[in-house]
Design a protein that fits this description.
The complex is a heterodimer of chains A (about 325) and B (about 260).
Chain A lengths: L3 E13 L7 H7 L3 E14 L4 E5 L6 H8 L7 E6 L8 H6 L1 E5 L11 H11 L4 H15 L14 H13 L5 E5 L7 H18 L2 E6 L2 H7 L2 E6 L2 E7 H8 L2 E8 L12 E6 L2 E7 L5 H11 L2 E7 L3 H10 L6
Parallel strand pairs in A: 3-7, 3-8, 5-6, 6-7
Antiparallel strand pairs in A: 1-2, 1-4, 8-9, 10-12, 10-13, 11-12
Chain B lengths: L1 H16 L2 H29 L7 H22 L4 H9 L2 H5 L5 H6 L8 H17 L6 H27 L1 H4 L4 H13 L9 H10 L7 H8 L15 H26 L2
Classes of the chains: A alpha/beta (about 325), B mainly alpha (about 260).
Chain lengths: ~325, ~260
């Protein structure tokens, strides 16, 4: 049996309709009309223990709603969830004892207390044996370099420090599954990389199953073998990341800064899609052309000052899938 | 559970004590502000002599009992005020549900305002004044009634705070609702219940039982009969009224939590 089983999961919200006009707001107070919004409209997938999966989709696709149902915070409107044999919203306390949760934007720590005190309190909340707590705290302090700010109140931490503290806090009680909602949002490259390294480490060494939502495809590339892509509350892709990219994210872009703004870089293996002053965007097909070959070609013909390769963004891939229809799954 | 409560509360108090000066100033502030509240009553009574046949010392007894209970409820229950509202606005209530503890317990431990002892001190002073003026014969039952009444009143006010907070599940940001119940109830109970109309007396004894925080107990201590026929032994009904009311508040809270989980955001 899989660790996480989700079958035809649904969640609909009813929202009051906002009425137009001067009296609209007043009438809205007296007699509300509701519309039903299907945030999650029949999602199914399974996840094996030890996996590391990305749960992706554009804003409002239903990612967070699904995560909240998986963590037992929200009650589904329909369908079935089982996580490690428990139904999250029915056996909430037993369920959350075995999971760790990090919501990117907001901390789970005690705002006014030094970081170490939050950890101490969590030890009491989760009844973590002292020896195990010490061991974990030591391990996470080293991996996440928490040492310098253990005595700093949480409210004074930088976003990156806070995220590291939150990750440690979510793992102190040795959860079997870690749920992460946008764990790298707003972080700089260094902080992001440290967190990614940590996540793959705990997945590899401790066998923690990780499921994360993100906007950032590079998180997924670095971490996830498995990708579940949703849009409008439905699964539109479920499988390996590589297949997703080759099938739906074929087009990459080479951004070139030329030394001479007057010439347009024209090469056979790519299309010039945009040019602004000395900067030009060349789109190329990853299946036919390698970035190395294209760079060599451009550099041989034109005086190049700088180059970057842009990967297709998740939003673009989702758009691409939608433009070509859902049939390609 | 009690040990965990003390651990979590201990952490709160320690963090508040980091700002020692501000703590003492706030404590003093509560003492003075609520002191003014009683001064207003004293001035009114100074002008009119008595209200419903109750003189200043007797009203001080009423006020002291209810204020004492209210101060304890505020000290313990203010997690349901702005910390809870902040949770609802910022979405942090999700985090509460992601922890292996009851939501009630977690919101309760979200704050502990030791500085409200300022009001407790004020209430104690007012009570001391009342006892110095009224010749009460301190029999054991009367002595016992004192803590029983204060604890009942504490539970009743705590229940009111919880009920007010529960409305936030539907309105998200109206902690003011809480104040209508709590401060309104406390103000009302500062005067003898006998001066209100019958339906109001019924409401404050049997629906929102703040009346039990002081009135029957005060009658009992003074050895006085209620003009509307409330029996003397009704003073001992306070714990029952408090338990039933608190139980109802808890159920209402749980209902709120369950609608949150099924509507969410």
């Amino acid at each position: 049996m899989a660790l996480i089983e989700v079958e035809n999961l649904q969640k609909s919200f009813s929202r009051p309709v906002r009425r137009a006009g001067r009296l609209g707001a007043l009438r809205g107070l007296l007699a509300r009309e509701y519309v039903t919004m299907e945030a999650v409209a029949g999602v199914s997938f399974t996840l094996e223990a030890g996996a590391m999966a990305g749960y992706l989709g554009p804003n409002g696709a239903g990612k967070s709603t699904t995560m909240k149902m998986l963590t037992g915070i929200l009650v589904p409107s329909g369908g079935r969830i089982e996580v490690g044999g428990l139904v999250p919203h029915r056996q909430r306390v037993a369920h959350v004892r075995r999971i760790g949760v990090v919501f990117g934007q907001r901390t789970q720590l005690w705002w006014d207390l030094p970081t170490i005190e939050s950890f101490e309190l969590l030890r009491h909340v989760y009844k973590i044996p002292m020896a195990r707590y010490r061991e974990n705290l030591k391990a996470f302090s080293e991996l996440l370099e928490l040492g310098p700010f253990l005595d700093t109140p949480v409210r004074q931490l930088s976003l990156g420090q806070r995220m590291r503290a939150d990750l440690a806090a979510a793992l102190l009680h040795d959860p079997a599954i870690l749920f992460l909602d946008e764990p790298t949002i707003g972080l700089d490259v260094v902080a992001r990389e440290r967190i990614r390294g940590f996540l793959s480490e705990i997945n590899r060494e401790r066998g923690v199953t990780v499921i994360l939502t993100t906007h950032d495809l590079s998180d997924v590339e670095r971490l996830c073998q498995r990708v579940v892509l949703i849009d409008h509350g439905r699964v539109i892709y479920d499988g390996g990341l590589d297949q997703l990219k080759t099938r739906h994210g074929r087009w990459r872009t080479l951004v070139v800064d030329l030394a001479d703004a007057s010439c347009a870089p024209l090469v056979e293996m790519a299309d010039l899609v945009r040019q602004e002053g000395p900067r030009a965007w060349l789109r190329f097909d990853r299946e036919r052309t390698s970035a190395a070959a294209l760079i060599a070609e451009v550099a041989a013909r034109y005086p190049v000052r700088d180059l970057t390769v842009e990967e297709p963004e998740i939003e673009a891939i989702v758009r691409g899938i939608y433009e070509r229809g859902v049939g390609v799954i | 559970m009690i040990q965990l409560y003390l651990t979590l509360i201990g952490a709160r108090v320690r963090s508040q004590m980091q700002y020692r000066v501000s703590f003492w100033l706030e404590l003093l502030g509560f003492l003075l502000v609520t002191g003014l509240e009683f001064a207003t009553i004293a001035i009114l009574l100074g002008r009119f002599g008595s209200v419903g046949g109750w003189g200043l010392a007797e009203v001080a007894l009423l006020y002291g009992l209810t204020s004492f209970a209210f101060s304890l409820a505020e000290m313990v229950g203010r997690g349901f005020d702005s910390p809870f509202e902040r949770m609802m606005v910022m979405g942090a209530f999700d985090g509460v549900l992601a922890r292996p503890l009851g939501a009630f317990f977690q919101v309760l431990t979200a704050d502990f305002q030791l500085r409200r002892l300022g009001r407790t001190a004020q209430a104690a002073l007012v009570l001391a004044y009342a006892f110095s003026q009224i010749p009460i014969v301190w029999t054991p039952d009367r002595l016992l009634l004192l803590p029983v009444t204060v604890l009942s009143g504490f539970l009743i006010y705590l229940a009111l705070i919880v009920i007010g907070a529960t409305f936030c599940f539907w309105t998200t940001t109206t902690p003011e609702v809480i104040n209508v119940f709590t401060f309104g109830g406390e103000q009302m109970a500062s005067y003898p219940l006998s001066i209100y109309q019958e339906w109001l007396r019924a409401v404050f004894l049997f629906l929102i039982p703040v009346g039990f925080s002081n009135y029957p107990a005060a009658l009992y201590l003074l050895g006085r009969a209620d003009p509307h026929g409330l029996p003397a032994w009704s003073a001992w009904l306070a714990p029952l009224a408090a338990a039933v009311f608190f139980g109802a508040a808890l159920r209402f809270w749980r209902f709120g939590v369950s609608t949150y989980a099924s509507t969410g955001s």
